Queue: 2 jobs
Job 1
Amino acid sequence: MSAYEDLNHALKQRGYSITRSREIVFNTLSGSTPLTTADLIKRINKRIDRVSVYRTIKLFEELGIIQRLNFGFKYKLELSDRFAEHHHHLTCIGCNRITDINKKELEAFINSIASDKEFLPSAHQIEIQGYCKKCRETEKQLNN
Amino acid sequence: MSAYEDLNHALKQRGYSITRSREIVFNTLSGSTPLTTADLIKRINKRIDRVSVYRTIKLFEELGIIQRLNFGFKYKLELSDRFAEHHHHLTCIGCNRITDINKKELEAFINSIASDKEFLPSAHQIEIQGYCKKCRETEKQLNN
DNA sequence: AATATTTTTGCAAATAAGTTGCAATTTATG
DNA sequence: CATAAATTGCAACTTATTTGCAAAAATATT
């Protein structure tokens, strides 16, 4: 099944129509590197209304047709290392608790990227979401 | 030197005054996990004007007092794995070219996080910026 | 295929996030 | 403590996103 047929199927299966708007959004994303909403709207350039692009994004997300590289925020602020140390985070979806990613493991990863690609990293942003030990245990109990 | 004295020093050194606004922003960020602008404004809650918070953020960034966990975008959109594979990216600051992060290395990293913290990852966002081989070579030439 | 029904679209207007101009206030300096 | 320079708050603006509603398009029915 082609990606396009897949789209039709995904829409029909859940009772949604196949429309010009939806095809345009799909085709614009297809074969592109990830796009911001602004870029997507720019590329679609008046062929369909801005509002419909937003609505299509929302629908496609619900149907699992697209996914967001989702930071949920444009940026977060923190004091620089000189004033307090900079970390990357694990966020528990269960209890919203935030812990730091182990520095050694992170460094090993960044180094492996560097050597592999002959790429010299100068900055990185890493966020991981999941379930902490406590929440996994609670959930287990809930499911029994 | 305490973080607070450090702040005074960093400001004075570059000819900026020490003001109530700047102290409040600093203290609010100090000892907090990273905050979005909205959260920061909410916590400061009318003690100083929204606009001044924005201006202080801008100044602190220029002075290297704060740093952004900077995605530069709230989210980017891409087709789900069912329609096209989902990757994480290396962005070259020199030529803006985007390449994918090696999947094996990424998985190894995610697994190491999982075992270490007893944390079960369900999603992650990773972006790395730096210089590709070509741009490093070009830059070398430019510096000679 | 023509019409009825349901879904989707575009437009106008609302809300939210961030920026700019300017007069009033605060901070630094002699 | 008076003056000059820097900083703040307010109002107004821009940009991003959302919502209500009538018109248009897609689907189902005959």
Note: The helical segments of chain A are 3-13, 20-29, 37-44, 50-62, 103-117, 133-143.
Job 2
Amino acid sequence: MPHNVIIQTYPQLLELYGPRGWWPLSACNGYHPNDYSFPKTASQRFEICVGAILTQNTAWTSVETALDNLSQLHALTPAALLACDDQVLKTAIRSTGYYNQKSAYLKTMAAFFHDCKARTPTREELLQLRGVGEETADSILLYAYQQPFFVIDAYTRRVFTHLGVNEGKESYRVVQKRFHDALEPLYQGQERILVYQEYHALIVEHAKRNHSGKQKQ
DNA sequence: AACCAGGACGTGA
DNA sequence: TCACGTCATGGT
């Protein structure tokens, strides 16, 4: 039963690696294991949204460099990023690659959150933004807005294909529904958020340590 | 020196 | 829907 594998792998990974403390934020110098009170400010929330765009198909170390540059430019608020010169913005995020696309994506998102203010965006609203696909939307919803959407990324697909849960070619929503259906009965409310956040982070940790693709467990 | 990294989008079957 | 090319830098 695929659901049992999904259910049982979480405590195993948690035992193996311990809490990961995602999403990394510059305010707490990166990760914050066992502290689920983040983000604490609108600025930190926006930093997560920016990071979610910048990390697309890109190593997180490259994103840290870019976020550092943006922070020094004081551009980590919607209004400030909107006012940022395009060339300056591209130079700041250069390390993350795709800087022509990503600079435009960031401005689109900045405009959206500038209008959105403190309101929690819907998944549909996020998906309408250029540069925000399903994974990025769910990352923003789960880590910036504490909404129960399990993030399905390349690591998740790889790990659970090896565990026999997937074939590997299923659509995003099919894979996500398997996680939701398996985990929803066990975890409710704030605990569900916590588990979705930790589980995804643990999957990434596990996949990174077995990057040749031969994890068993 | 290929190959991959916490994907999304446009296009043509 | 689905497969494929494109976008681009940085580390191994």
Note: The longest helix of chain A spans residues 189-209.
